[in-house]
Structures
1.
Amino acid sequence: MTSQRKADTERVKRREIYVNDETWKGIKAAAKQGDMSVSRYLVQCHESDAPRGNLGHLIAFIETLQCIDQDLRDIAFALGEGDRRQIVLTLFKLVEIERHLRAIGESLKS
């Protein structure tokens, strides 16, 4: 029994790309880390629904989440202490968290 041949548009073909050495080194390392060939890695990156491009937004997002995490730790500590002054300061921390969350919302719109 013979297998059916793929249509010409479905066949994989050898391609050539132009990149500098540093970029190529990064691509190869990422592919190796993902335990896949460079070809498969590039195809997967292209097909991925993950946002690409603006790494600055991602870094800012992570930094904001870290701030929120620290604020929540501070709040938990303050509530554990039970000091009235600490509880009032905790309210200010909650306002800071709200501002961080609003900033995240605004950044996701752009």
2.
Amino acid sequence: MKLAIVVGAMLSIVQATNRQLSQDVIGKFRQVAGKYSNSTALGGSELADVRKNATGLIGNFHHDIILIKEDFMLDAILQESGMHFQIANQPFTVDRTCLNFLNTSLEMDINLAGVGFTNCISRVDELFNGFKNQFYNRIGAQDALMGELRILDVFRGENVFYTPQNIIAKLDLKWEALDSVPESVSSSSHQALINLKVSLEGLRTAYIECMTSSEQLLRRSIDLLKMQFSDMCLGESIIVPE
């Protein structure tokens, strides 16, 4: 009889301890849930800031590219206009057929320069899309990481009354894991932004070099036309009015 009483008392103590652990699960979960909310908010904020900065970088990049294209295009038009002026204002003593040949060659040279300009910007477009996709894929991976964060799964396969200690152990692991989430997201997303910035700067430089090469070819072609103008057509240099 005494043994039964002792065993019963011990079971009551164990049961009371387990019930306390069951209640501890709720308290622990609330703590982890609070940290979960903070971590996801911080991570989401970091990603939003990086996306905003990337949007600015991409916008500025396109603004720069079109300004560069405009500068080279206007320079080409200026060269063409100068040559056209010389041809159009020659005295009637200059062979018109020869001048017409020069006009045809000039038109061909300008069109070829346009082909070069198109090749340059098409290459930029191709590389830009690659860099942009790399950036958003990396940011998307961080988004996916944020989306995979979960804490309710600590209850899966457990019994809050029978194995509360297992749930508490899982919650402790969740707590530790959540510590690294904002830092991990911040580090990875900011590195992706840096990579995008460096890539776009390099692409801008490459575009200028490509356009310069095409523009130099046009200049050489027009210089040749000027020689043909004076040596073959016997044209006279006309002062361009200011």
3.
Amino acid sequence: MDAGNATNFTRIGPNTTDIKAYITYPGWLTFWFIVMIFLCILGAFSNSLLFMAIVTSRKLRKGSGTLIAHSILIEAFLCVIGVPLIMASTYMPQFGWPSKTMCKWTMLLFYGPIFAGTWASVLIAINRFVAIFFPHVYSKLTTPPLLALVIALGWAVALASSVPMFFEAGGISVGATKPWYACGARQEKPGYLYNFLVTVGTTAPAVALGVIYVSIFTLVIIRALIFRRKIDTTDKAAVARNQRAQAMTQKRLKMARMLFVSYIWFTVCYMPAPVTASVAPVLYGTSPLVSLFLRMLLEIGYATSPVIYLTMNAEYRSAAKRVLYRILRLCRPSLLIRDDTIKIVTEYEMGKTPTNNGISA
């Protein structure tokens, strides 16, 4: 993500010939480009797999599953469209300058989904907070119309934060940004609109995420400590209530751990670029290798975020396995030879426990 002051901004034009980064670091740029291609392919596959796992599972696509599928779809779009556009605008100036129109669309298709994805993460966090601490109203807040409304509101904020860059409103200019002269946006004329838009699109939701996740983790830990108190073992009703409470607490602890890991991963991969661009714009705009690394870190986050769901949630793993098997069955139908194998797989896809040995649920 490009941000900074006007000193690191150059308007697109034929007289701009300062391409020292391409002369000094050609090998690093090629290495970065190849790695980014691999990460985009990996991200497209991993996010598409998780998205299909959610939408093909009746259980997973309810409630938070809808919001997670929406977030995953945004990251898949970035891996297929948004990030490759930034890659192209970073690599191509050594051969020919990108046009103003190309840079405008690159900014819209890059910033817009990033802003929408960040707010989508906030919606997931709010959903989990309600599910853990207000389960009695959770079903009322996760009806399809309400989920569609909050998703639409998230996109409204994202577009309101990115469309002004496309039209270069409020003194914002779109053009080539140092050190690689990739497409970027800058506050060229006096004003604060660009910083305000980036704050609304990334900084504000990132802070909200931190507050929500820390609150969830802290409150769940406190509840776990409370339910560990000693009870009268002769009171069977009290023992039963305590066992149910402990089971629910363990489930909430598991979810809190997954959310906490998600936020740590979000902080490590997604925040260094905007933070560096805001706090140290000179470093971001003059160090070619730092610029490449921060862009790569962003794509690493998009490519690997589905791994968190797949490694920390057995239901997502099972659904992903079913999707992979369906794909494999389409590619290699000869794998299904025996009738009992077909029966076991059919039961597995329906979410039932197979009646025969052969495929574990």
4.
Amino acid sequence: MAWILPGSDGNPVMQHKAILATSLGFSRTFNSRNIEFPWYALWDQKLSDLVADVPHLIVTPQFPVWFVPPDDHEDEKGGAPGRQADDDDEEAWAGDTSFASTIPAKRAKSVVVDFVILNLGAVAQPEYKRNFRYKGWRITAASIGLLVEVKRFVCRSLKGQEQKAEILRRVTEAKGDLLNQAAHIFVQDPKRDSVLAIAAAGPYWSSTTIRRTNVTKKIHGLSVGDPDYQATSERPSDTVPHWNAVLRVDLARSSDRLHTIYKSLKKMNDDLDKPADV
């Protein structure tokens, strides 16, 4: 028996939503141009169902991953770039934020990811520090556990092997984007060695773990000019990540594969403090 995503386990409403979201993507009336955005509904639903029972994992769409080149760490007036903290922002510049501030500096190098699953750490605040913003909890760590890149589905008139080949081409395109996104994460956080990734074309998808050794060339290209950067060799080379076979997301085998991703994400922060009522 296939694993059931926590958000849809025993919940026919959520199961029905996933069916409707798939139908929206395929609709010739409401997706007549066959663009990718209607497919976001399906992936938002699936990802939310995937981590529905894990409080510290949250789905975030259109997430920016960025870093400031070393020459830009001080602006023309000698100040640090990026956002300025509010006077009452107790979290400003505190904790382990692997994606740093959410507002990049003017000359930052950045990419926007269709979806990420963020892994959050938090600590309970004393009664006297509780306020309207934090509801008694302060975020102490935030890191990207999963990258998801969604491409539009193939031409709906294609059939058989021709359709399979075009799906593979679209998924491969998403894989290339994910490697670039992962490289940005690794430059931004030198301690980070890997990140989970899903490449999708409509309802079809493939996944892998992208490791630092898979994107050495991209990291090198992004890091040129950083006086602290030390290349492992004069000509960096990449190892090839192992992507699993492309599957349709509503198949039982897909659920079992998502279970593997779920377990990997959950292990990232099992010791997180949780509110007493969660």
